[in-house]
Automatic annotation (TrEMBL):
The keyword Ribonucleoprotein does not apply. The lineage of its organism: Eukaryota, Metazoa, Chordata, Craniata, Vertebrata. Belongs to the SEC10 family. The keyword Coiled coil applies. This is Exocyst complex component 5.
Amino acid sequence: EPFVADEYIERLAWRTPGGGSRGGEAFDPKRLLEEFVNHIQELQVMDERIQRKVEKLEQQCQKEAKEFAKKVQELQKSNQVAFQHFQELDEHISYVATKVCHLGDQLEGVNTPRQRAVEAQKLMKYFNEFLDGELKSDVFTNSEKIKEAADIIQKLHLIAQELPFDRFSEVKSKIASKYHDLECQLIQEFTSAQRRGEISRMREVAAVLLHFKGYSHCVDVYIKQCQEGAFLRNDVFEDAAILCQRVNKQVGEVFSNPETVLAKLIQNIFEVKLQSYVKDQLEEHRKSDAEQYLKNLYDLYTRTTNLSSKLMEFNLGTDKQTFLSKLIKSIFISYLENYIEVEIGYLKSRSAMILQRYYDSKNHQKRSIGTGGIQDLKERIRQRTNLPLGPSIDTHGETFLSQEVVVNLLQETKQAFERCHRLSDPSDLPKNAFRIFSMLVDFLCTEHIDYALETGLAGIPSSDSKNANLYFLDVVHQANTIFHLFDKQFNDHLMPLISSSPKLSECLQKKKDIIEQMEVKLDMGIDRTLNCMIGQMKHILAAEQKKTDFKPEDENNVLIQYTNACVKVCGYVRKQVEKIRNSMDGKNVDTVLMELGVRFHRLIYEHLQQYSYSCMGGMLAICDVAEYRKCAKDFKIALVLHLFDTLHALCNLLVVAPDNLKQVCSGEQLANLDKNILHSFVQLRVDYRSARLARHFS
């Protein structure tokens, strides 16, 4: 532990009797001083003793350092001598090695021709046996020496190729016959070893056959036997993957070129097994069932490419990607060439069937929406005048829009996009995707949504119809929902296929055009529907509002808070506001409600202008407008509420005292209004003809 002087002195004083207050003893400074003096003397003695010991150790260390330095010098001298001896030995070894290499070259120069001569002598001996027609050598008669015999016959076969045919035709045929026999024996031996599972023997025989012409036949036999019993399950693709996995582990132990053998096995699987399987699956439905044909084609192509991805893990040579792509193309090329035509044909017939089945379920015979000059002229007139051209059609509340139909059409198109992505050539993908999108636009947007809009427009009654049922808002609601689904599929499934191609702008323009076309019809239908709503309000007011409501016979006996016409109009308006909110979303709700609110205000304003008002009648009118204003609050549109606030202020002119007219007219809500408007309301008072009122207002 580190030495702390204060703590040391404290401990010393604590141990000294009389050095503290321990045990009740009195403090004795003399005794403590004496103890300190004695302890200091002890420490001095101890310091001297330690100092002597340190000096002794220093002297000893200096002595040993001198001895060590002397020893290191001696070792350095010895090392220099040893290094000189090592250099001399190295030079001598180099000299001897040079002599040995020279001698080895001389021996090799002598031995190589000798070995060649011996080899040539042996070959001549074996060649003579073929000349004599009798093979006596043990190497040819002993079946266990088939490897040596194969090496000899292979060399003799090469020599025989150089000999003239006219003189050595017989011996050449014998050598060729023996060559063929040995080749067959080796292949047979390889086959037997493969069946027994003897990898070492297979490797040995394959190495011998490598220099024979029949080596490729050996590979073929190996590939054929590998596949025996490998395809017993229903899933040929999984069987193929397992087979290749197993062979990949074995082929490197047997052949010197395993990547070539494995590639040949895979080629054989693709061109024989898979091609046959694919053909059986597709040809069955190619002409009879387009839906099943497309499903099978997509499934088979996907499983084949998945198998190809698994095979990419193996060593198949330098460009295995191209190799596998060519194999896949060779299987499917005849089916992929006309894929998009089959897809479009199926999609067209399937979509038409879905729509027809829906209309049949409604017992509806689809009307023909005309085209050409007359129809275009009608359309332009209708857009500019908003007049219903042609007889109104009673749809009995049917919108002729079905989410089930839409979901079915979108599901079919989604599957078509997925197949298109997988089966189309990358260069044709944007073009094919655009064709599928065009089919969706034709059947979903034109044949279904646009037809429903046209039918809905034709079903909107004229604005002067009584008790008209307004179903067009239901059409708007469903069309809005459907278009959200259409837009989602456009973004989720079409955009990834065309995002980096020129077809993107074409698709966006087509989508924009169809949206604008439908928005025009929706706007037109909503406008005419609002006109009908206002027409219904007019009928209610005409039927329920009486002239005596605002000019009662008994001014002192009016018991109602507001008129019956006001109650019914407000009830009708609230229902329509709720319906508009349920039928639309976003800013469209506020836009349509503002338009309805403005027209509602105009109707009430013009309606109030038709009557004369007594004092009590004016109070009833104010009560009615207050109720209308309460109804206007449901719109939640500032402009509409402001209009009814102003109208309420105008109605005050019907009851205000003549002396206060100018003050009321200059109030905050009426100050900015045209004087003619104010005058027109004052004129509605029954006492307007009195000279006093006319004078005050002038």
